[in-house]
Design a protein that fits this description.
By secondary structure, this protein is of the alpha/beta class. The chain has twelve helices and twelve strands. Strands 5-4-1-2-3-7-6 form a seven-stranded mixed beta sheet, sandwiched between helices. Strand 9 and strand 10 form a beta hairpin. The protein is globular. The chain starts with a strand and ends in a 19-residue tail after the last helix.
Length: about 400
């Protein structure tokens, strides 16, 4: 099955083409679809084309993502990225096409609020043949709704022009599956996965523990009661005068601080919110506030102070994330732990989980995505889209809409 995947949930615009197989039964016309609930014995995803543009530099001056700018950039970039992904996949064949006037009018109306996207797409459709694809997968949420709508309307337009079904993908399910996947060259494989699967999803907007007892069926085990962990990283980074996005900046400083003597942060104690609370929930607002109070007590900070605070903050966050995950593991008896989301790229968090899983839960399989799959991307949307397509879980274009607060469970 060849899937075109589209991701526009935040500040990355991404389009990918993936050829997927395994994980269930599939034949032309989507007959004989799988309803299996156990994890697939093996599913393979050949990356045919993958194009992505990040808007991070454009949003840096705002200290975070500016929704109107994100929407505009998605609308500007989608057609060029579509061309790039299809060309890399060798599915872009130029040929003059006649567009039915009714279709032209329908697409122009559908994309009327997306700036120049309608004009660019109509020009593309006039010049290129319909590619040999089986389905379109698009992020429907969670995320910034103005940004999500651009991708959704783009997917609807392509589906109407090419006669393809659409799969509406939950962005967080994409992160779960990207974490489970093992990458080898231009191929991703999901194999040897045992349920129950415990997923720790950590990003700028999410901090939650989700259990998958049956394949693609989710149960919320714990969540943040205030700030998401990525949000806390960004806010603390801003307090320290670091550039956006703050997570990588704090991680870089903390890693440098680990090369200092063992007593480098002696006397600098930050709280571990809810560490011993009898739930699997998180809280990071108090930790962020503790950093603020610490800075207010000081008459300015130098580079060494920034390193010390970054290290103390990252250590506190990592300890809380591990403690809550360990509690959830004991309560659920999960066989697999997967970490997903942008914060899963953090070097120290990855190290803490690898060391503690090996020491405390040697029978548990830990899955962490490769660095290029931690941030938002279209490959993870293709993975989720494929498994949903195997269940014939297609969206009705007439009712498909963006859901900024869409949840897994």
């Amino acid at each position: 099955m060849k899937i075109l995947a589209i991701e526009t949930s935040c500040d990355e615009t991404a389009v990918a083409v993936v050829e997927a197989s395994g994980g269930g039964s599939f034949s032309k016309g989507f007959a004989g679809l799988s309803t299996r609930r156990e994890a697939p014995s093996s599913a393979s995803f050949k990356i045919l084309g993958n194009a992505l543009l990040s808007q991070v530099e454009k949003h840096a001056e705002y200290g975070g993502v500016f929704p109107a700018l994100a929407k505009r950039e998605h609308a500007k970039n989608l057609v060029p990225l579509l061309e790039a992904a299809l060309e890399e996949a060798e599915l872009l064949h130029e040929s003059e096409q006649e567009l039915d006037e009714a279709l032209r009018a329908s697409l122009a109306d559908l994309l009327a609020r997306e700036g120049a996207l309608a004009e660019n797409l109509l020009e593309f459709l006039k010049e290129c043949e319909r590619p040999a694809l089986d389905a379109i997968a698009v992020t429907a949420g969670p995320g910034l709704e103005p940004a999500l709508w651009v991708g959704i309307n783009f997917a609807k337009a392509l589906a109407a022009a090419w006669g393809l079904p659409i799969v509406a993908v939950n962005h967080m399910e994409g992160h779960v599956l990207a974490g489970l996947a093992q990458k080898s060259g231009e191929t991703l494989e999901i194999k040897g996965v045992e349920v129950p699967i415990l997923a720790l999803l950590i990003s700028g907007g999410h901090t939650e523990l989700v259990l998958m007892r049956e394949w693609l069926e989710y149960e919320l085990i714990g969540q943040t009661r205030d700030d998401a962990v990525g949000e806390a990283f960004d806010k603390v980074a801003r307090m320290l005068g670091l550039l956006y996005p703050g997570g990588p900046q704090i991680s870089k400083l903390a890693e440098a601080a680990r090369n200092e003597p063992d007593d480098f942060i002696k006397g600098l104690a930050l709280p571990r919110p809810m560490l011993h609370d009898a739930t699997c929930d998180f809280s990071f607002a108090g930790l962020k506030t503790a950093v603020l109070y610490l800075l207010k007590k000081q008459d300015g900070i130098n580079d060494e102070d920034k390193k010390r605070i970054a290290l103390a903050f990252e250590e506190a966050v990592s300890e809380v994330l591990w403690a809550k995950t360990a509690r959830a593991l004991k309560e659920t008896g999960a066989k697999t732990v997967v970490i997903g989301g942008g914060v899963s790229a953090n070097t120290h968090i990855r190290r803490v989980f690898k060391e503690n899983i090996a020491k405390e839960f040697p029978g548990v399989d830990l899955r962490i995505p490769s660095a290029d799959l931690t941030t938002d991307n279209a490959l993870m949307i293709a993975l989720a889209g494929y498994f949903r397509a195997l269940r014939s879980d297609f969206a009705d274009p007439a009712t498909l809409s963006a859901s900024g607060a869409l949840s897994l469970a």
